[in-house]
Write a structure and sequence with these properties.
Blueprint: E1 5-8, E2 14-18, E3 29-32, H1 37-48, E4 72-74, H2 75-84, H3 90-97, E5 101-103, H4 114-122, E6 145-149, E7 152-161, H5 179-189, E8 205-211, E9 227-229
Parallel strand pairs: 4-5
Antiparallel strand pairs: 1-2, 2-3, 6-7, 6-9, 7-8
């Protein structure tokens, strides 16, 4: 699965599937998206050498059925993970963790508590500190942190539990042996003071799951929008 490349048209009207370097020379093919499910099923069946069915779900398949908004991470957090695993580049880390939104600066409101103030002080150089996003969820699962990016309102829900995918190279699927244990150990050791430790039943967590109310549908996010905790 990791070897398949999907290139979408700018308007998402079509997708081209290809497997560069595949020894069987499975030909690349372009399909209307998302309607050509039967043609896509034929292509996948050839590649996987078994019958594959393709279905389109407009609602998607979120990992978290309650906090199914965009996941959010700071650039500094991804950079810190790169430091933990020598040779991992920032782009490689982005592909491994597949976070929807990445932030590199933020405006904190004047009523920020001590933990937020510490994060603000750490970002005095104009960039957020690693794991800054850990202040975007509350002390327990019943509480949320409300914040706004540009004109869109969010509710931060919980630190995102990760799956086996980040341990695998996004280009060749090679498994980085010991990734989960090393990541979890270092995440525990470097948990920032503004992160509610009670929300970590395990430390293989990175980024923040969010909820977005129906009232926000149609609002736009733009590059360089400011994030403000409400």
């Amino acid at each position: 699965m990791h070897l398949i490349r999907a290139a979408y048209a700018p308007d998402l009207s079509s997708v081209t599937l290809a497997v560069p370097g595949d020894s069987r020379n499975v030909p690349a093919r372009t399909f209307p998206f998302p309607g050509a499910t039967e043609d896509a099923a034929e292509w996948f069946s050839v590649y996987f050498e078994q019958q594959i069915l393709v279905r389109h779900s407009p609602e998607g398949f979120p990992d978290d059925n309650i906090a199914n908004g965009p996941t959010i991470i700071s650039t500094a957090s991804l950079q810190r993970v790169c430091e933990w695993f020598p040779g991992m580049t920032l782009d490689n880390a982005r592909q491994r963790f597949r976070t929807t939104l990445e932030i590199d600066n933020a405006e904190l409101n004047a009523s920020a508590d001590d933990a937020q103030a510490a994060a603000k002080a750490a970002s005095a150089n104009g960039h957020l500190p690693a794991f800054w996003e850990d202040q975007l969820y509350g002390e327990d699962e019943r509480s949320v942190v409300r914040f706004r990016i540009g004109e869109v309102n969010f509710e931060g829900s919980n630190p995102c539990a990760r799956c086996p995918v980040p341990s695998r190279d996004p280009q060749n699927a090679a498994d980085l042996v010991g990734f989960q244990k090393r990541f979890s150990d270092l995440r525990r050791e470097t948990l920032p003071p503004w992160a509610p430790a009670a929300r970590f039943d395990h430390f293989y967590r990175l980024a923040v799951n969010t909820r977005v109310a129906p009232t926000e549908i149609g609002k736009l996010l733009r590059l360089d929008d400011t994030l403000q905790i409400l």
